[in-house]
UniProtKB/TrEMBL annotation, chain A:
Record keywords: Heme, Iron, Metal-binding, Signal
Keyword Signal: yes
Protein name per Swiss-Prot or TrEMBL: Sulfur-oxidizing protein SoxX
Source species, domain of life: Bacteria
NCBIfam families for this protein: thiosulf_SoxX (TIGR04485)
Coiled coil: none
Any single Pfam family the record assigns to this protein: Cytochrom_C
SUPFAM superfamilies: Cytochrome c
GO molecular function terms attached to this record: electron transfer activity; heme binding; metal ion binding
Signal peptide: 1-19
InterPro entries in the cross-refs: Cyt_c-like_dom (IPR009056), Cyt_c-like_dom_sf (IPR036909), Thiosulf_SoxX (IPR030999)
PROSITE patterns linked: CYTC
UniProtKB/TrEMBL annotation, chain B:
Xref: SUPFAM superfamilies: Cytochrome c
GO CC annotations, alphabetized: cytochrome complex; periplasmic space
Catalytic activity: S-sulfanyl-L-cysteinyl-[SoxY protein] + thiosulfate + 2 Fe(III)-[cytochrome c] = S-(2-sulfodisulfanyl)-L-cysteinyl-[SoxY protein] + 2 Fe(II)-[cytochrome c] + 2 H(+); L-cysteinyl-[SoxY protein] + thiosulfate + 2 Fe(III)-[cytochrome c] = S-sulfosulfanyl-L-cysteinyl-[SoxY protein] + 2 Fe(II)-[cytochrome c] + 2 H(+)
The protein, known as: SoxAX cytochrome complex subunit A
GO molecular function, one term: electron transfer activity
Main location: periplasm
Active-site positions on this chain: 249
Catalytic activity, EC: 2.8.5.2
Amino acid sequence: MQLKKLTVAAALVAGAATAGEIAPGDVVFTEDGAIEISLSGAPGVAANAPEIMDKGAGNCIACHQITALSDIPFHGEVGPSLDGAGSRWTEAELRGLVANAKMTFEGSVMPSFFKVDGFNRPGDAYTGNAAQEPLEPLLTAQQIEDVVAFLLMQKDQ
Amino acid sequence: MTRRSGSKALTWMAVSAVAFSAPALADENASLVVNGEIEMVTETDAPAHLEGVLGDKIRSGWTFRARETQALQLDDFDNPGMIFVDQAAEQWDTVEGSEGKSCASCHDDVETAMAGVRATYPKWNDQAEEVRTLVMQINDCRENQMGAEPLKYTDGKMTAMEALISVQSRGMPVDVAIDGPAQSTWEQGKELYYTRFGQLDLSCANCHEDNFDNMIRADHLSQGQVNGFPVYRLKNTKLNNSHARFKGCIRDTRAETFSPGSDEFVALELYVASRGNGLSVEAPSVRN
């Protein structure tokens, strides 16, 4: 019974995903840099986050320590520890941070993961050659939701 | 090329024995004495033009490297970069080009002729009315003095020659001029240093000024100094010119890079070198 309801709900949300997806240029930030609604229109899947946060598209670990991913070696120290991020920030704030941290922290060295314009000499990935326009964001809308779902689970011990 | 065997740097050995339990970390109290005789200044007062952006002290990249990597620079017999220096020493005496000349034909003995030269490069050349890197000067001699083909900016033979010339200044303080006719190039380099590039939107300063001494992934971020260049990298097992390093760093911000030898990189080299004024010329240094 309960299970059936959930499956239906998931199917509905998945159906809405493409229609509800927000393009990088259309994202609305609050004054504090938060994003109120899901970028993909679908809920995030926390289980997908570790791969994204490791050497994948996010590479968050290069700059952040996080105990939940301590099986992955070499966590960086450029940004603060992400332990307890889900206690410090709301879902909307985390979404804003991952999509474009510069809207929360002016001039941050943290890359903007859901932004496709306004860069100086953008490159074609890590080839050193000029990028093919239009640029893809570093993370897709759904990947951002996945990472946000994972960060929300990081509560203070 | 004379090399010394024998006494290794005792100071370093003593300090490192104490720090033995943490082999992966750099030993920041170690001192670098090459061949037991050339004392390197690896940390010194920051030049005035930095206005404190790096704190009081500037530090050679050597101080950030792991003990095992640091150790390779203590003795020329252990330093893999010295093989290329020896090859360049042969090149120095080799006749090339339409004029039938070698470097030695005009400059004679490299040790005397090139002592102190590296420490002042990049520098303004009055006749050419441009800031010249050492590579540009070597190619100028090849083309206009020897009638030989210029070498590609990052050609292995060129980087080796740059290293041979640099070795003649080992232990001398970097002392590039930033005023006078070089000033506008220096300003251009400074501007580039603080410009954010690429889709990661990062400037040199974001990593090497705001975050030196922090780990970025498995890398211990240094101040990005060039006093040790050309650098032998364990990663690619060859000598690397500073412009190749700049190119790699910009590429890693997901940016379209500039080319080695470009006006941008010449200006950047002058500016970055000036951030290290006072550190010893260390080439060929060893990095991972």
